[in-house]
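Listing 4. Sequential folding, example run.
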Amino acid sequence: MQSLSTAQARRIALAAQGFLDTRHAVPTMRTFQRTLERTGVLQVDSVNVLQRAHYMPLYSRMGPYDVDLLRRAAERRPRRVVEYWAHVQAFMPVELWPLMRHRMEAHRAKRGKWGIVEEDPELEKNLIDEVRARGASTARNLDDGLPRTKEHWGWNWSSTRRMLDYLYTVGDLAIAGRNSQFEVLYDLPERVLPAHVLARETPSPAEANRELVRRAARSHGVATAQCLRDYYRMDAKDAGPAIAELVEEGELLPVTIDGWKRPAYLHRDARRPRRTHARALLSPFDPLVWERERTERLFDFRYRIEIYVPAHKRVHGYYVLPFLLGDRIVGRVDLKADRQAGRLRVQAAYAEPGAPPETAEELAAELRQLADWLVLPEPVTVEPRGDLAPALAALV
């Protein structure tokens, strides 16, 4: 069995995620497509303190790009991506829709992803008929004023809103896009998905599981079974046999990684670079770091999102982005886009142990580029919090 050092595994992972791809001066739809093939999915999140989560992984890999590329891919024909629960709520390539049908039927059997939607055939029919007649609509457009409930933390949904979410989860409706308030627009699947995608036969559960593991392995490069399961949020009972089959077929190669207790699997087509020259700020929802145990093993970097932690208990800040330089994570910064002032604010900046001398200079350059991309024309400001803040403030 082949053995890899942690550094080798780290570089393989970075290559698989697209951090070795040459950045285009002006990213095009072809650039977008290539990047999506690397990441597989783009997690969607409503937090907008810096930039919406689904835009950031593209920026980290492609550099400054026109965010309309993603909107066009998601909302214009021929649609290339669609939202679904592929990891969590995420944009996924449209060709994954048939692979998700078993997941959809499982949600139908338990009345929703969380099992909270009561049966109401009349409401289901009326909502689908209304969407068919109106076209893409938000829950607010369709809400009939039914009583709302606060039984579940963070939710204040009407019966209409809960039913629409159920219909989307089971595939009876699809997400056609979002409006300027980030509200979901629901529509019929046949008006969202390309006809050739909807016409595809539903693969067997085993075929669907094998393809999802295969895609996860390509996006990871090298990974443990837990990493492979997490990428598309699969159950162990589904992922395990798929991993075994891909090992038997020679697509996954069992390997050991120095210091890792769990066995790992290398995709046979994974690139194995000797060095990397990446420089990127990573969203908390970036596929490179969203599996926190994997992040700690690969980068010796303990990372926790602190959005939901009370302010006085936060260690590093509210919206903290790791800073990737070369093949290491060398720092982290708490960032905020102050749109009213037209300024990118660094609310805290920390260096990791052993960060190279050029960390502050490279980070300053990356922050200026990020501010330009976000159309924040005023100089970047750095608050005096964190051991990297003084050097960074002197450079920006």
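-- end of first protein; second protein begins --
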Amino acid sequence: MTILMSDSVIYKLSKLFALRIIKLYNYLREEQQEYVMSKQIYRSGTSIGANIAESIFAQSDADYVNKLKISLKEASETRYWLELLFEAGTISEEAYASMLNDVNTIIGTTINIINKKMNS
């Protein structure tokens, strides 16, 4: 069975989140003149979806789960950068809460996918 990337819920979630991360990156650089953390969150936030995209055409179940676990690590790192940006007063509470909700949804969904795959 071939999975189309456009039909994958986690692919869609991670891609939409990556687009939000790109907008956040631009805001941080242009409006906040924040250059270090902006690069860090850009890398980790867009890497989530890149690894999910790779997982769709994994060579084995183990490779599939590994790619998803890498996505989880990147999502966790992204959550850390969001916390720092918020606690430093660089992003608003509203932006933080919204993006935190998105990344937590991605984390929960990814964990569910991994658990289902490992228990099948």
